[in-house]
């Protein structure tokens, strides 16, 4: 019997590569005749990928191949990197992808059948390569079903009105989008929709190409986003949707940080259940000194135990990830460590899923990245929203207004390529959000706890995501 081979093409960056590898693991577990090659694109900014690829369990090494691609010659430079350049940079890999597929063993093997490409939400240029090989394309969408609907909505709008989508949204208005239960304020739309350049057109053009594929896997589960998923499935112009999440890396890659990990876990072990508020803003999340001081004052005044992942922002003129502080006291209020001794801990790197899974953690102040959102849901920890970039404002809105699973610090805070100096969020507003978050009697806590159990059941045999993944495998094998 022939083996079917899928080629996965995630976008550059750990936030896209990790869920891709995790869904690949689930797929090969489900069908013994299926194997997967993951083609890895990189950007100089990302340095963790080599150590991550080495960590892939030997249990999967015979059926999952991680194949790094050499960087193409391109005019795109890191010094001028933005959303437009990012999409162009991915497109410049088309030749590398074609060569890699042509040179692999399955391209000429009689026992292996190339079954299709599974592309990331930002890698639709690779549909052209799949078409050259005469094979179907599928999408692995690493954000929410609601966000998928938002992207498709604006793609439809661009056909009706103009490629310049941003011309048709008033800053103080709201937008009716079928995958959201409530009208979405324009201020909570992804920044890329609102910018006055080609990137908004390029963004919605990805959605246009989604419609050319044979199916879309989404990293969500039916019980979490039932409204959004129904809206997508009711639209006959959208390919079949497969909610297969929550797809998470449960191993969490703590091996390289053993000492830091042990110190954090020991500190949490000493705290009462649900007593600690955890603050973490993702791999790209950081704040300037004046905002750091407001957060510190809020934490001090709140009286709660806190664990705070505090990162140094990159230089204004460079596109870099935040780095570690050698001495965080330089940006914190004078005497802050002395006054919060025993009650608070400031860290750099954070083993986020392990922290969220610890019984002492009772709340999560988060940037609302979709991976972080799913980790908080799986851990049963409610969120206080503080989005920064990408689609995080829309995620925050959905969590607060549609799902009732978060409290708001901010839903429209924005710090991305185009907005580097957002208005200061004052300590009083932050403290108010933390108090609401940590209130043991709030309805949000009960709902998150209920969703925690549903998120785990979805992946078990017979669960909604287990069944959806099975349907996807059936589709691949038929095609």
UniProtKB/TrEMBL annotation:
<dbReference type="InterPro" id="IPR035595">
    <property type="entry name" value="UDP_glycos_trans_CS"/>
</dbReference>
<dbReference type="InterPro" id="IPR050481">
    <property type="entry name" value="UDP-glycosyltransf_plant"/>
</dbReference>
<keyword id="KW-0328">Glycosyltransferase</keyword>
<dbReference type="InterPro" id="IPR002213">
    <property type="entry name" value="UDP_glucos_trans"/>
</dbReference>
<dbReference type="GO" id="GO:0035251">
    <property type="term" value="F:UDP-glucosyltransferase activity"/>
</dbReference>
<comment type="similarity">
    <text>Belongs to the UDP-glycosyltransferase family.</text>
</comment>
<dbReference type="Pfam" id="PF00201">
    <property type="entry name" value="UDPGT"/>
</dbReference>
<protein>
    <recommendedName>
        <fullName>Glycosyltransferase</fullName>
        <ecNumber>2.4.1.-</ecNumber>
    </recommendedName>
</protein>
<keyword id="KW-0808">Transferase</keyword>
